[in-house]
Amino acid sequence: MKFLVIEGNIGSGKTTLAKMLAEEMNAKLILEQFADNPFLPKFYKDQERYSFPLELSFLADRYNQIKKEVLNLDLFHPLLIADYYFAKTAIFAQNTLKTDEYHLFRQIFNMVSESVPKPDLYVFLHADTEKLLENIKKRGRDYEQDISPDYLEKIKAGYFSFIKSTHSFPVLIIDINQIDFVENPEHFLLLKNKIFKSNYRSGTNRLILP
Question: Is 204 annotated as a binding residue?
């Protein structure tokens, strides 16, 4: 395995798990770089005006970052772990943009998506909405505190629609409702072993832990 993606809804712990696995496996880590996006603070003040340029900037940033990092693996870090995949761009844009804006956005997305490197394994951390909201509240990011259950459900539906249509690489859906891989080392070890010690077929694979 050379390229592993850890994905999930907001509050699923995908970034935390990606960091833990990268440290454990001495892997190169790709984290989404959204904090420095110049459109983000403008978007929070005027969503209607800045949603389209924000989503376009995310598309460009994610595309450039993934292509650059995957094509520049080094001998010291032969494994690359990312906390997002390029398809995330379209999933979130669909829930942010107006219909006509999304249609234009999707045309641009489709033009570039074919050249994006595909992961050897795409892991999706699935948690119930209640657990996601609990995690969001616990980590305390101000800009996330108004996220509604309905919005999380829409994002989940977008991810599942993408997963259902994906057949070119293995997708592993892991139900994490009953585990805590941050506080429980045994849960983390179990998760790591399931990710790295099994061969999954292309398309959707499901796993319930423990």
Answer: no
14 in a labelled binding site: yes
pLDDT digit string, tens, across residues 47-62 = 889 999 999 999 999 9
Kindly give the residue spans of alpha helices, DSSP state H, lying in the chain: 14-25, 40-45, 47-70, 88-94, 99-113, 129-139, 149-164, 185-196
Predicted model pTM: 0.92
CATH number at 114 reads 3.40.50.300
**Among the options 74, 83, 120, 142, which is catalytic?**
83
Q: How many folded domains does the chain comprise?
A: 1
pLDDT in tens, 20-46: 999 999 999 999 887 678 888 788 788
Determine the structural domain holding residue 31 and report its residue range: 3-208
The answer to whether 16 is a known ligand-binding residue is yes
